TrEMBL record, chain A:
Residues 63-271, 357-551 form the ABC transmembrane type-1 domain. The chain crosses the membrane at residues 12-32, 67-91, 98-121, 150-170, 191-213, 249-270, 303-326, 362-384, 399-417, 429-447, 479-511, 532-555. The keyword Transmembrane helix applies. It is a multi-pass membrane protein. Belongs to the binding-protein-dependent transport system permease family. InterPro entries: MetI-like, MetI-like_sf. Pfam families: BPD_transp_1. This is Binding-protein-dependent transport systems inner membrane component. It is found in: Cell inner membrane; Cell membrane. It comes from Nitratireductor indicus C115. Keywords: Cell inner membrane, Cell membrane, Membrane, Transmembrane, Transmembrane helix, Transport.
From TrEMBL, chain B:
It comes from Nitratireductor indicus C115. This is ABC-transporter ATP-binding protein system. It is found in: Cell inner membrane. Its main location: membrane. It is a peripheral membrane protein.
Length: 567, 359
């Protein structure tokens, strides 16, 4: 009897040790290394790095730009996301499912692809404008190469994020709270502004913080739109410094990435302050709000909805596809001149592009599979564990994802620049350092749906197995894994889709031979080969759509809210 | 304040009928309870009166003004109907005072008057010192009082209560019941009170509308419901009445007639004009059954269960003539019955359920 108990405790200890080890390796270690570089460069306490960073004018300009586009993008995303969430949640517009799917899709497309697609819409070489004969004369600057352009695209990229969070909040709004106001004599607009929106404050503020962090850390959009206009934000500044100076400037860029981290943190702290100021806790559960009848406004609203989709989704994708069919710079696209040559070139001829397809495929698949297998025991401890340090655990897993990707990339660089101790293995300048960064960054994307899955699962199922005499590992393998696997796998799929076109991390970590698709698109665009960049992007967008379709096929086996594009 | 008139109202959801031809007249100042098991359509009825649901047929008038017909539905904010919800529905982001003053603010009442009326409403529910609190910091009973004050402050023409005591514990229920009754007496507001708890309905209401499967079963005073149920559903629903098969032997005379039940002849109360008929039903209560010593008039059977309840026992009994017909009655101390024991019982009185009314 006591031997069995010992064995049980042994298994629990093994599980805990494994999880703590993972968190140390993938979360605490890189963050600690980064801080060390800034505060203790070369092993002794020094403020040199900080001082050097602070006196540099470029630092201040980039910081200011980061905050400006961060706030602008957040504001735009908030207005758009909240408005759509209201429309979908409390009015009687039709075709909601399809609309939500289309509206959320930009979130699934990599930012640099979004940026590329939009760039193809405007400017003198726009195939669409040329076909319509509306193109501005050659030499005119693309209007998107500007801070306004960056704000606009950040807003469109992250409005779905705001929408998803606010929509989830709206679903939990009990209808009585709205009906009580209605029977108090309040009209629809009044109910919206005095009851619904105030009660949504936590969701809206939370969404704002998350969007701000995402905007501040975004690399793809300011890289495509800002670099040509010489409008630098911190992530693009870090990229340029590192591309120009190599490992010699690591201390300097470490400081800059900590700066991004601090800006992001300020956003999160501010959110916490704002939402704890008042009581917004909704305690009762009930049916959700009866949809407001729009009456004769319904059709105009619905038309507006689909015009919005046409603008944020269809138009840029059309621009992207058209560019990918162009024969060469300055050739007007028509049925006669359209060609698939660009696709042939990037798939069969261009060595780096071919390699990148394989690299990205392997990297994302490895990250996804690893995350699924880690998320199940990790989720178990977070959701069902009894320990008090579990909240800290959750925080530690969230940290690498909550902080902008640049921060993690620099931390990885610092960590692996020298060969690893004892083993002497060198992963710097190989594909493995990218894999490490992906694992650390995206793990949380699988952990979140898994934890949700655990909360929806009746714990008695596990307890029954325990009563039947199954040890922890046996339970995990035979009972929990089969039950929770769909949720974890949906998370894995999200990781796969996100990592496939990832740019922020790989732009800083790639080397010749370990290019990713994101890097290839970026290089093509930087080299002026928009048509190749567009071809690669179009292939990736098609892949994303296919994966979304695939995931939707087994959607009814998943816990609610795991697939973001399903309403 | 105003009366409420529900005329032949029907509500269908798809093919399902949630309400079927319901007509209820509530007089000005009356306290009417709508009683029924869950799923009987009472909440749908309340939501239609408040304007949250449209009617599929019939019409609803409040204070003589048409508010709901299949063609027209006055929106909830224009009905001046107050509602007290089961889960209180207090807005968590507003203080108690803000919650109560909301409808006045909406109506554009001046700040000074608003404050005076909010204070008066708080006084009415004995919550003067809680004006600055947040709803989250109040107990269940206090929240319900705030909800009541919030609904009263607008001086609604009609107040709807949607199972307001369902979330409270037993002690609090009794005291809130007193408060509701007291409040009705003081203000004279017309009240429609939805509940599934018959003790609550009996204690509070002037009249009770019993509903089942979307249909109105009986609308009567509590006494009448208990003593003269209009059909089997009401008879068995109210205070667990027993419905027994009977043959009517004589025509009504002075409100009574002679019937045969389980082979026993007895006189029961009945409606005017009852004629002799077969396959009738009578309703009798536990207090109208007693044990018979020896071979007096009555019927034989077996005790199936005797549960001691302190001071008396609830005894369940199966008559020989109809083994599926479970009877129950109370035997006061000293309790002598035990399960399995054979005994003879008789019915002392009862009510002849009128033929062909309702289910």
């Amino acid at each position: 009897m006591s031997a069995t108990r010992k064995e049980r405790q042994g298994q629990e200890l093994a599980l805990t040790t494994m999880i703590v080890a993972l968190i140390v390796i993938f979360s605490l270690l890189p963050m600690a290394r980064l801080l060390q570089e800034v505060i203790l460069p070369g092993g002794s306490l020094s403020v040199d790095v900080i001082y050097k960073g602070l006196v540099s004018n470029t630092t201040w300009v980039a910081t200011w730009n980061t905050i400006a586009v961060g706030l602008g993008g957040t504001l735009f995303a908030l207005v758009l996301g909240v408005a759509v969430a209201i429309l979908v949640s409390i009015t009687d517009v039709r075709q909601r499912q399809a609309f939500v799917l289309c509206f959320v899709t930009p979130l699934m497309i990599a930012p640099q692809v979004t940026a590329l697609a939009w760039l193809q819409l405007f400017g003198p070489s726009s195939p669409l404008l040329n076909m319509l004969g509306m193109a501005p004369p050659l030499g005119t600057r693309n209007p998107l190469y500007s801070p306004e352009g960056i704000v606009f695209l950040l807003g469109i990229q992250y409005a779905p994020l705001v929408f998803l969070i606010v929509r989830a909040g709206m679903r939990k709004l009990p209808r009585e709270l709205v009906e009580a106001a209605q029977s108090s004599g309040a009209g629809w607009a009044r109910v919206l502004f005095t009851i619904i929106l105030p009660l949504m404050t936590p969701s809206i503020v939370g969404a704002a913080a998350l969007t701000f962090v995402s905007c501040v850390g975004n690399f793809g959009i300011p890289a495509f739109l800002g670099i040509p206009a010489n409008y630098l934000v911190l992530p693009t500044l870090i990229y340029q410094r590192l591309a120009g100076g190599g490992p010699a400037v690591l201390s300097e860029v470490a400081f800059l990435s900590v700066l991004i981290g601090i800006i992001a943190m300020i956003g999160i702290v501010l959110q916490d302050r704002l939402s704890s100021r008042r009581d917004f806790r909704i305690t009762s559960t009930s049916l959700s709000v009866t949809p407001y009848e729009l009456g004769r406004w319904r059709v105009p609203m619905e038309i507006g909805m689909w015009v919005l989709i046409a603008i944020i989704l269809v138009l840029p994708l059309v621009g992207l596809v058209l560019t990918s069919l162009v024969r060469g710079y300055g050739v007007t696209l028509s049925a006669d001149t359209a060609t698939l040559e660009n696709y042939r070139f990037v798939i069969f001829e261009h060595v780096a592009a071919r390699r990148a397809f394989l690299n990205s495929m392997y990297l994302s698949a490895a990250a996804a599979v690893f995350a699924v297998f880690v998320a199940i025991p990790l989720g178990y401890v977070i959701a069902w564990g009894k320990n008090r340090w579990i909240k800290m655990l959750n925080l530690a897993v969230e940290l690498p994802y909550a902080l902008p990707g640049v921060v993690l990339a620099i931390a990885s660089l610092l960590l692996f620049l020298k060969p690893m101790p004892i083993t002497g293995i060198q992963i710097y300048n190989t594909v493995w350092i990218i894999l490490y960064a992906y694992l650390a960054r995206f793990l949380v994307l699988a952990v979140r749906p898994t934890v949700t899955g655990y909360f929806q699962l009746d714990r008695a199922l596990e307890e029954a197995a325990q009563v039947a005499g199954a040890g922890l590992f046996t339970r995990l393998r035979t009972i929990i894994f089969p039950l929770i696997a769909p949720a974890a796998m949906a998370g894995g799929l999200l990781i796969f889709m996100t990592a496939l076109c990832e740019l922020t991390v790989s732009a800083l970590l790639w080397s010749s031979g370990s290019e990713t698709i994101g890097v290839v698109i970026f290089s093509f665009e930087q080299g002026g080969d928009s048509k190749y960049a567009a071809a690669v992007s179009a292939i990736m967008v098609a892949t994303t759509f296919l994966l979304m379709l695939l995931a939707s096929l087994f959607a009814n086996k998943l816990p609610d809210g795991v697939l973001p594009w399903r309403d | 304040m105003a009366g409420l008139s529900i005329q032949n109202v029907t509500k269908t959801f798809g093919t399902a009928k949630a309400l079927d031809d319901v007509s209820i007249e509530v007089a000005d100042g009356e306290f009417l309870a709508v009683l029924g098991p869950s799923g009987c359509g009472k909440t749908t009825l309340l939501r239609m009166i408040a304007g949250f649901e449209t009617v599929s047929g019939g019409k609803i008038d409040i204070g003589g003004r048409e508010v709901s017909t299949p063609q027209m539905n006055i929106s909830p904010e224009k009905r001046r109907v107050g509602i007290v919800f089961q889960n209180y529905a207090l807005w968590p982001h507003m203080s108690v005072e803000e919650n109560i003053g909301y409808s006045l603010k909406v109506a554009g009442v001046s700040k000074a008057e608003r404050e005076a009326r909010v204070t008066a409403a708080l006084e009415l529910v004995n919550m003067q010192q809680y004006g600055d609190r947040r709803p989250a910091n109040l107990s269940g009973g206090q929240r319900q009082r705030v909800a009541l004050a919030r609904c009263l402050v607008a001086e609604p023409r009609l107040v709807l209560f949607d199972e307001p005591l369902a979330n409270l514990d037993v002690h609090l229920r009794a005291s809130m019941e007193d408060e509701f009754a007291d409040f009705h007496k003081r203000t004279g507001t017309t009240i429609l009170y939805i509940t599934h708890d018959q003790a609550e309905a009996m204690a509070l209401a002037d009249r009770i509308a019993v509903m089942d499967h979307g249909r109105l079963m009986q609308l009567a005073t509590p006494r009448e419901l208990y003593h003269e149920p209009a059909n089997e559903m009401v008879a068995s629903f109210i205070s667990q009445g027993m419905v027994l098969p009977a043959d009517v032997e004589t025509a009504e005379k002075g409100g009574e007639c002679k019937v045969t039940v389980l082979g026993q002849e007895l006189v029961v109360r009945c409606r005017k004009g009852e004629k002799p008929r077969k396959n009738a039903r009578i309703c009798c209560r536990a207090s109208q059954i007693e044990a018979v010593k020896g071979k007096g008039a009555g019927f034989d059977g077996t005790i199936t269960r005797a549960v001691y309840r302190g001071g008396s026992a609830r005894v369940e009994f199966e008559p020989e003539a109809a083994p599926n017909l479970g009877l129950h009655f109370d035997q006061p101390d000293p309790v002598s019955f035990e399960a399995g024991q054979r005994t003879r019982l008789r019915i002392t009185s009862g009510w002849l359920i009128p033929a062909g009314e309702g289910a």
